């Protein structure tokens, strides 16, 4: 089948090798050298329509078993029972639900999202309802999900859709990209799942699946790898839909894309369960892993056939130790309890068959040819039978299985660990005794930037990188509060103690939060004056009020530490 370039100028630019010719190579490149040309990465899945079909059927059965409130049947515009107006209303709502669910699912588990999603849709069933909501209500409905900027962006985007798009999310990815907070991934999800368009999507899970299917040992954040993965995702979804130039809509793009996400989150995980994978037949990395267990090395003739000019520029060298460690770990995980790791390794001779490291196999086992049939038969057994068969020669098969899984888990190449900068701050919890009990001063953060619009206790950022003494921090916080409360004499503010440290990790920053507690003994008028100038940005709350305020996660942890002291 010839797939024509029907996309924008950007589409397919990165992965020209995919279209160089139609000769998908099914030959496996052999570790550890992995000498291969760039067209090795043309997906085997492209030509295997049987696997494409069975993969869609696999997703259908999973979707039936793992129901989620946002997983619904596709709304077909050609359904004879559809009144056009009703259909458009239903489609607009469906697109809105897909959008909300995708934003909530970013960096959050499905089980956590479900009650939030249900509550959200009940409160604001349409884009218009969300656009009309108050910002505080929106933040309150998000409370506990974390990354509050997602809620603010959803809210602002709903207002934009009502203002500029007649309250309806558009269906084409390029139009969705014009909406605040919608990136390429979310655009692909809405376009394919709700509107049935052959639009690709790529998240961390799908990137991992595709890197393994294609045998790419590169970093998914490397621009050239990322571009290729987008092009492959695009090519695959179009191919599976049998779309060429005319792009009729159908339920296939949504099922296909959701299937890839499901596979990446449940089976092709960082430590994959390849024996349960519906895409095993087309997986380059799985085949490479098997070749290791067979000690199948490239012949000189095979190496000669590699065209140096076309050598792959996407893959980085394999770290042999990393592969071996992953194999040992996989073997440890599958061994039955009661056998220690070292005993287990001794008995079964867990080792890599990678040729460049000395074998750890017992002498009697070295050089023995391993049978692919044994391994394949074992891999296809249900878990219970694997365990019961274990005493009978299955240990060797387990060991091979661990080697394959260990090999697969080394793909894609891991990102180097980032060192995040550290920052320190002082969180000042100021309490005031009144006839109605204790009250605490909180303030709202600016509406833009980090933790936008959330509430916090007055906080002072420590500019020094040095480790300060407790006394120096105390002095610093007193000066900070005196500047904040100009007009309140110093003797009304007493330091009551330092209540520990909370470390909060953002993706770009490690924040050390020192908690200082103060008592303020001022009259009602002064207390009110502290909040009156910027009334909407500061307020006194009782304990319950602080419990219910939309504090950031780090602030909430500071509050919990102090609150525990009162009970
Ligand atoms: S690595 Fe394993 S789980 Fe992932 S796609 Fe390949 S065979 Fe499937
Ligand atoms: Zn490569």
The CATH topology of the domain at 422-566: Nucleoside Triphosphate Pyrophosphohydrolase
- Uncertain runs: 1-12, 337-376
Small-molecule components bound = iron/sulfur cluster, zinc ion
- Per CATH, the architecture of the domain at 422-566 is Alpha-Beta Complex
Task: Report Rg.
Answer: 29 Å
Alpha carbon gap, first and last residue: 71 Å
CATH class of the domain at 422-566: Alpha Beta
Shape: globular
CATH superfamily of the domain at 422-566: Nucleoside Triphosphate Pyrophosphohydrolase
Alpha-beta content class? alpha+beta
| Strand portion | 5-15%
Topology, number of strands? 7
In this structure, how is the largest beta sheet organized?
7 strands, mixed
SS field, number of helical segments: 21
Helix percentage range:
40-55%
Element-by-element helix/strand order: HHHHHHHHHHHHHHHHHEEEEHEEHEHH
The pLDDT mean sits at: 82
Task: Write up this protein.
- With 567 residues, the protein is an alpha+beta fold.
- It has a domain of 145 residues: Alpha-Beta Complex (Nucleoside Triphosphate Pyrophosphohydrolase), CATH 3.90.79.10.
- The chain is built from 21 helices and seven strands.
- Strands 1, 2, 3, 4, 5, 6 and 7 form a seven-stranded mixed β-sheet that branches.
- A hairpin with a 4-residue loop joins strand 5 and strand 6.
- The longest helix is centred in the C-terminal third of the chain and has 27 residues.
- The protein starts with 48 loop residues before the first helix and ends with a helix.
- The N terminus is likely disordered.
- Bound molecules: iron/sulfur cluster and zinc ion.
